[in-house]
Amino acid sequence: MISILGFLKARESLKHSKKISEENRLLEAEKERTELLYMISEEKELIENLISDLEGLKIIYANKDQITETKLKNYANIFDVYLPKLKEGLRRVLSDYEAVISMDISTGPENFLKLKAYQKDTARDIRHAQKHIHGCIVDFFQKIIQAHEL
Known about the structure:
The protein is mostly helical. The longest helix has 61 residues, at 2-62. The chain starts with a helix and ends with a helix. The chain has one domain (30-149). It has helices at 2-62, 66-71, 77-102, 109-149. It is built from four helices and no strands. The model has no long low-confidence stretch (mean pLDDT 85).
């Protein structure tokens, strides 16, 4: 009789242990998903800021006189080159965000960890592009000011 009670107690303990283990796994998956969503949100903000800066510069450029516009025509390629790429990047980031939101956390943290590694590479590329594009924006804006002063 005592061995049957011991067996039942051990079985109950095992069930409880498995339940706690699964809860911890789901909690870890949710933590990884939250971190991933935060990373994607930061990327989205960087891209949106770059698009805003470029579109603002485009408005300034479009409102300059014809002489200034002619002098800076080569710099105006910045709009044709970078705006479409940034808008595509924004669409991709928004799509990634929606995909992560809709992922089932019951699959565990492994999927989120894989996506997190991919997202870190993407974030690095976006930061690199942001530095380059921001430099182009500053240079172009200074050229507009210089051309306007002439």
